[in-house]
Amino acid sequence: MTTSDKTLNGKVALVTGGSRGIGAATAVRLAREGADVALTYVNGKEAAEDVVRAVEALGRRAVALRADSADAAEAAGAVGAAADALGGLDVLVNNAGIGVLGPLEDLSLADVDRVLAVNVRGVFLTSQAAAGRMGAGGRIITVGSCMVQRVPGPGGTLYALSKSALVGLTKGLARDLGPRGITASLVHPGPIDTDMNPADGPYAAGQAALTALGRFGTGDEVASMVAYLAGATYVTGAEYAVDGGHAA
What keywords tag this UniProt record (predicted)? Predict the structure, then answer.
């Protein structure tokens, strides 16, 4: 692929939670498409630096920023830090998220507050800040979950709640920002092979059986959809399932 063939040549992207899993795969994929990439992390400094090196090996600039999406100031501040470090912002990928699963009666108020702070409030604040730094052609892409479209069993109420809120957020952003030429889209991964949910883990067989393809997906497969949306010009307010048929 030549420089002129890269769909994101000269663009700047921020990937929250970009030190591992889907976030790391997305950061590298966007770099392959020509973008300079900032990524946030909370605890995985070494992993984040590995991603930075992978991006730089592709000839793009990269920076790792410590920012906790549960902290309102840090969630919004990461946008300005990324834009200042790399000279602007064209693509935001809201990937940072946490999952607290378990019986409804066992979920504490602290669980509720933490999950909603990261998965909903943090995404809103980061998107709001990004909208203030983006011009026409800006892209806001948020990572949701297959559990928005199908909750296959008990224990997922809080997580499904938090990810379902992103549907309304995305549609609202599309309407608010469309007149400025900025799009907003949502990607729903199914079971994806990551260190948090490995394809050979104790619950993996049951998760794979819920998909039409009968397997886990990869971070690269989700990243390919994110990269498509980062370059798409007439897609906004839309949801895309990358779930192996989990919702089929």
Answer: Oxidoreductase
Q: How many angstroms separate the CA atoms of 155 and 15, rounded?
A: 28
Query: Quick check: is 159 catalytic?
Result: yes
Which letter does DSSP use for residue 64 in this model? E
Q: By the 8 A CB rule, do 86 and 92 touch?
A: no
In order along its 248 residues, the chain shows pLDDT tens digits of: 555 578 999 999 999 999 999 999 999 999 999 999 999 999 989 999 999 999 999 999 999 999 999 999 999 999 999 999 999 999 999 999 999 999 999 999 999 999 999 999 999 999 999 999 999 999 999 999 999 999 999 999 999 999 999 999 999 999 999 999 999 999 999 999 998 899 999 989 999 999 999 999 999 999 999 999 999 999 999 999 999 999 99
Positive or negative torsion for Cα 211, 94, 60, 50: negative
> Which residues are within 8 A (CB) of 186 and not within 5 positions of it... i.e. 6 or more apart?
141, 142, 143, 144, 166, 167, 170, 238, 239, 240
Residue type, 66: R
For the domain spanning 7-242, the CATH number is 3.40.50.720
- Amino acid letter, residue 206: G
Taking alpha carbons only, the member of 202, 229, 79 closest to residue 140 is 229
Enumerate residues 6+ apart whose C-beta is below 8 A from 163: 97, 119, 144, 145, 147, 148
Rounded to 5°, the CA angle 94-5-58 comes to: 60
